[in-house]
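Q: Joint fold for the lines below.
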Amino acid sequence: MKQYFAGIDIGSTMTKVAIVGDTLVSSVIGPTGPEHRRLANKVMEEALNKAGLDFEDLSYVVATGYGRINVPFADKQITEITCHAKGIYSLLPTAEIIVDIGGQDSKCIKLKAGKVISFVMNDKCAAGTGRFLEVIADALGVPLEKLGELSLSAGKAAIISNTCTVFAEQEVTSQLANGEPVANLIAGIHEAIAVRIYSMANKLKISPDIAITGGGAKNIGLVRALEGKFGCQVLVPPEPLLTGAIGAAIVGKETYENAAGRGETLKRSTMGLQAASFFS
Amino acid sequence: MADDKKPRALATQAAAKIPKFVRGNMSATLKAKEEGKKVAYAYINDGQDEIMRAMDIVPAWGESFSGVCAAKRDAEQYLQKAESDNFSRSLCTYATCTLGFDMLREEMGGEMPPGAPWGGMGRPDMIIGSGQQLCDPRFKWPQATQHYLQDVPVFVGSMYYPPWDPNMDHKGQEKIYVKYATEELRACVSFCEKHIGKKMDWDKLAALVDLTDRTWDIFIDTYELRKAIPTPMDTGDAMNTMVPLTFNLGTQEAYDFYADLNLELRQKIEQKQGVADEEKYRILWGAGLPSWFALGDFQYFNSKGAVFPVETTYRNAEKVERLNLPKTNDPLEHIAWRWVRFWTHWYDKARNRPGSIPKVERIIEYIEDYKCDGVVFHSAFSCRSWHAGIVQQAEILRKIYKDIPVLIMEGDIVDISSYNEADTHNRIDAFIEALETVRSKGN
Ligand code: SF4
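A: Joint structure:
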């Protein structure tokens, strides 16, 4: 019988599910919202439906991300750092540094053959995170998903000297009032984030094989700014938001198979999937 | 510092006695005021402990008081008070916490601010400070305090040690530094004599210096018992059991405390009683004062099978024989030699490993002696002297030693507003996973 494994990554803004067998079978990305548990059920059910599977068809489920503790049906909880490393290794096996720019934090992870060697995190302030971009997009009246494209048309990157979100927002609005084109301002903001990420990555031994995950990876302007700073191409997986969930599913698969190799069958969580209402 | 919560099940019984020590130190300052004895604001690791004890001056430790405020999560009112007079929170929060406390007490005409943790500290008759290399608050904090306690005389001495330079043999320099430190201590004695109106009893001082030597020895002998696997005590406890060494040096109680702890650890080792239910990982606390309001994080590590058999923080002692101190009949000179050699005795080792520095050499020594699998550093934003250079130490360690898993936690010593429990635990989880990775690779 074919075996399937699920990974669920509950981040601060998005919940992601990946189901893998021999390859990726199905995936779903939904908003997290304040009710982790209910949404975890909902997104998992959707991913199972897409794959034509029942919850009982899953051999093992691993939860990751900030909300990982709130997934009652998971068999194991692993941090997103390990899961990103596993996920990237399966998608871009040459990568040795991962830059993960998430909704509320950013991290740099150093890995060797998919295993975490060390990591650094920025979680004390919003600078260098998705939240920072959201605030600036709002201040400029530009939809978040348009920031990347728009910044590529910049004549030059405006100099944004503040990385503190509150001050940067003020600085951007006052430069806007002085006639600085929006595209230049966005390019300047990407530049400021890239500088911050670079100095964080510098605490690890930087190697030229760098991959980016998380929401920030979907912003082409930010990716270009990072490439400028790191002086090399930055690899982007096909769906950067899914990296952690795929990694979690792979961790599940490996855990299960290692146990099987020892002649053990891992116990599943007694908490099954609860029917989710799609009307709410 | 010692909180008055229920002790941990696996903590040592000795650690459970610490709240009494801390309370005792604080109430001694209040009692001294009633009895007409002199109270002095004092600062840790100052080299002046025996001088104060020999002259019956009761020390009031600001760092200890701030630690208690933090552990009781009661520091915010004092921090805010100091902030209201333009002291920045990025200044040492030990300093700002006591400054806020002093400001409140003065506003109340010298009365103890209501609800001061554990009865508060007595108003000092003098302030005896000792600046240390790198730490600016240690020079300015006593003077800033005097701004509010204008009638209180201040002495700020300084204790230096030769700077580390891989191309320079420090031995020729040590004597100069010892001479300087001795004169500083002599000036401290004169200051005390002047303000308490009594001469130093030099025989008593010599006896107390000898007692401190023996306390250093038994402290190290006891802490080295933690090399045992499973370790009978970890850093979570050591952040409490450091109290007698740090705040009660030059007292028989401090010596007796470590003698008792020694016996207890030997028993635990005999019975193979460890800190964690199952000791899976041994970690070195590589640097940094802890977040006193979050000592529970050590238990979080323990719950994952991770223990800290050794730390650099508050291990401000060494077996005296290992320091090879020159003989002298001057107790002040002996204190100075002990101080200087404590810092320089890693210099030769560092010089022998290209690219190394003494602080990293110390870390490597502990990793090997205590069989550690990883290193945790705590970077507290408001203390520059202890915490500056942590990232550099981690980088050098990896470069000259090996790619050992390292976690740098961020927070503060007193200011809880910089702390996020969920994030901290998330980092700890990731670190444990990295330890597991290295373990499974068989490194
Ligand atoms: S060493 Fe750090 S904690 Fe101690 S007084 Fe200086 S700044 Fe404050």
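Q: Anything notable?
A: Residues 276-280 of chain A have pLDDT under 50 and may be disordered. Residues B 92, 94-95, 135, 137-138, 383-386 surround iron/sulfur cluster (CB under 6 Å).
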